[in-house]
């Protein structure tokens, strides 16, 4: 059916095939990224809230800063800013915390943007692929009826093959769109959950550093 379709319909099918391959590649890649992000968040929070020494954690994590992600990246950004500001004389504790929160907010935004990478492509595939397939189907049906216009007597046996060939484009459009929509909805929800998790940790860590800042800057 693909071989006998018109050139325009074949072009639409080729586009949908390429889009579907790219979409499935992104779906699997995003699945591994989000799975790793959940695992890293669990491991980091378990280590942090068990009472680990933050200075030792910072020293260890900062050695491989290029490979950090999630809560670890937010932690390193915040604690680095805290140690830098805490050394300044005459600075108020609230000024330290404001600086720390700005640094962690930047790291949080970077991590959220990374998690959301390629989600817009999946959304675009899910919303446009059926229309691309429908365009190929309409074009194929138009071509089929035009070719039968010169016949003295056109029967269903003459019309059906051309229409069935054109409908393949619609089927391919749905095949590309349905997984992309499902993956987008699932991964968008996972991304929001992870972003909320990072933000909660940021607020809790800010509270820890705030108490430490007031103790360090308390008058003696």
From TrEMBL:
Please give the Pfam families that the UniProt record associates with this protein: MotA_ExbB (PF01618)
GO biological process entries = bacteriocin transport; cell division; protein import
Q: Which domain of life is it from?
A: Bacteria
CC per GO annotation: plasma membrane
Subunit info here reads: The Tol-Pal system is composed of five core proteins: the inner membrane proteins TolA, TolQ and TolR, the periplasmic protein TolB and the outer membrane protein Pal. They form a network linking the inner and outer membranes and the peptidoglycan layer.
The task this protein performs is described as: Part of the Tol-Pal system, which plays a role in outer membrane invagination during cell division and is important for maintaining outer membrane integrity.
Q: What is this protein called?
A: Tol-Pal system protein TolQ
**Species whose genome carries this gene:** Acidiferrobacter thiooxydans
Gene designation per UniProt:
tolQ
């Amino acid at each position: 059916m693909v071989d006998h379709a018109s050139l325009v319909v074949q072009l639409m099918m080729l586009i949908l095939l390429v889009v579907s391959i790219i979409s499935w590649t992104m779906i699997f890649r995003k699945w591994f990224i989000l799975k790793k992000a959940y695992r890293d968040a669990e491991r980091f929070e378990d280590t942090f809230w068990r009472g680990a020494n933050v200075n030792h954690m910072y020293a260890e994590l900062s050695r491989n800063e290029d490979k950090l992600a999630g809560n670890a990246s937010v932690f390193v950004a915040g604690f680095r800013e805290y140690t830098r500001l805490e050394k300044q004389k005459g600075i108020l504790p609230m000024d330290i915390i404001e600086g720390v929160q700005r640094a962690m907010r930047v790291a949080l935004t970077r991590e959220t943007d990374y998690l959301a990478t390629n989600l817009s492509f999946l959304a675009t595939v899910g919303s446009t692929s059926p229309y691309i397939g429908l365009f190929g189907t309409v074009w194929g049906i138009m071509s089929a009826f035009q070719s039968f216009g010169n016949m003295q007597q056109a029967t269903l046996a003459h019309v059906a093959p051309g229409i069935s060939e054109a409908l393949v484009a619609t089927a391919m459009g749905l095949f590309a769109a349905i997984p992309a929509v499902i993956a987008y909805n699932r991964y968008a929800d996972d991304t929001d959950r992870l972003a909320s998790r990072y933000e909660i940790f940021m607020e809790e860590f800010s509270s820890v550093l705030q108490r430490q800042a007031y103790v360090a800057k308390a008058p003696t």
